[in-house]
Design brief:
CATH architecture of one domain: Alpha-Beta Barrel
Strand content: 5-15%
Largest sheet: 9 strands, parallel
Shape: globular
CATH superfamily of one domain: Metal-dependent hydrolases
Bound molecules: zinc ion
Number of strands: 11
Length: about 400
């Protein structure tokens, strides 16, 4: 494995050097506000495998004896996080996962720890309820490390021997995440439920994701997602898995219309039975699909800073994030961070950004929090309780 890491780190070395120089400037792009924190939030679109603390990555890598191109956590932060100065593209953004996922892969203690720390970070960001998502295969023992789209993962049922450490299966990963969340929820008071991600380029693993979601239903797994490079393979190839999920009453969200066309959003809703859409910005480019989404009441999970860093909005030739238009049109939407660890952002900052850069009003913010709660994947009784908690914090929902 170490040999593989060496190759990987060499590939990233040029990025590292330019990133080091850019990092001090990057911090100036962070959003700050003198307003008091916006309490009582709900976050629906956040990747656990993009929410790791650089300090934890450094600690885990050091304990595992992995060679790092950074001598401490501060240097590692500059290396493994995405920066304002980096090329703004989804492909480039996804490439950054190539660096840090191998540090954690196959280490159940580390996986449990990042789940626990996720709860701590959500609590600090005044979040009441969250639905973190992750792909279990990305955190299990990796069989072959190669370019992102060529990567192969160990699959349930396979027992491939790794000379460095015991094999950790995707099921082991979900179990470890659930343990971390259980302890994290008990210690912080934050409530979390999990979503398991199918990967766009690996439809062959999607049915396995559904089986894992079913297996861990009683441990807090509430849904599945389709994540990764939009359009890597036709969405239809995931249809059998998403149909099966619907039969099993496993909830469904799909990344669509992030950098792809509006039609992808329609396909996600009609073919994959998506109840929520990750991003969905493309709908502003197509009146018919926009009207369809409004009429369906499909929830759009908006991530302002993420779409800026991935250059998603450039795809549609729009200067401003569509979230304000969605709020004005009473589209069912909410705000999320997407990947707070990689992007070094918080949900608190996302709301500040929405207010100061996109013109969101306090009513918009409160309405979005209620939208998120109504569109979350909790069973109805628990959802009612969450809505009650929100009323305690925010009062009645604005009309
Ligand atoms: Zn996402």
């Amino acid at each position: 494995m170490l040999q593989g890491f060496g190759r990987l780190f060499n590939r990233h070395r040029t990025v590292f050097l330019s990133t080091m120089a850019a990092a001090s400037r990057a911090s100036s792009s962070r959003c700050a506000s003198s307003m008091p924190p916006f309490k009582g939030k709900v976050e629906l679109h956040v990747h656990l495998d993009g929410a790791m603390r650089p300090e934890t990555l450094f600690d885990v890598a050091t304990k595992r004896g992995l060679q790092l191109p950074a001598s401490d956590a501060v240097a590692l932060r500059k290396y493994c996080c995405y920066h304002e100065e980096d090329e703004h593209s989804l492909k480039r953004f996804l490439d950054s996962f190539d660096f840090f996922l191998p540090l954690i892969q196959g280490d159940l203690q580390a996986v449990e720890r990042i789940a626990y720390e996720f709860c701590e970070d959500q609590a600090k960001s005044n979040i009441l309820y969250s639905e973190p998502r992750f792909c279990p295969h990305l955190l299990a023992t990796s069989v072959v490390w190669d370019h992102y789209v060529k990567r192969r993962y160990i699959s349930e049922g396979q027992r491939i021997v790794d000379e460095q450490r015991p094999v950790v299966t995707p099921s082991d990963v979900v179990d470890a995440v659930c343990r971390g969340f259980d302890t994290g929820m008990a210690d912080t008071g934050v409530m979390v439920r999990s979503i398991l991600c199918c990967m766009t380029h690996r439809p062959d693993l999607s049915m396995e994701i559904v089986q894992l979601a079913e297996k861990f239903k009683d441990r807090g797994v509430v849904g599945i997602d389709l994540a990764g490079m939009e359009g890597a393979v036709p969405m239809d190839e995931h249809k059998p898995a998403f149909e099966r999920a619907r039969e099993l009453s496993i909830h469904r969200t799909v990344h669509a219309g992030e950098i792809g066309v509006a039609k992808n959003v329609e396909t996600a809703i009609e073919t994959l039975h998506a109840e929520r859409i990750g991003h969905g910005y493309a709908v502003v480019d197509n009146t018919r699909v926009y009207d369809f989404v409004k009429q369906q009441g499909t929830h759009l999970e908006a991530c302002i800073y993420s779409s800026h860093l991935t250059g998603a909005l450039k795809t549609f030739n729009i200067d401003h994030h569509p979230v304000k238009r969605w709020c004005d049109d009473r589209v069912n939407c909410s705000l999320s961070t997407d990947d707070p660890g990689v992007m070094q952002c918080t949900l608190e900052e996302e709301y500040v950004r929405g207010r100061e850069q996109e013109g969101l009003t306090h009513e918009d913010e409160v309405r979005m929090v209620f939208n998120a709660a109504r569109s979350c994947f909790l069973p109805s009784e628990e959802k009612k309780n969450l809505l009650c908690k929100l009323r305690d914090v925010h009062g009645e929902e604005p009309k």
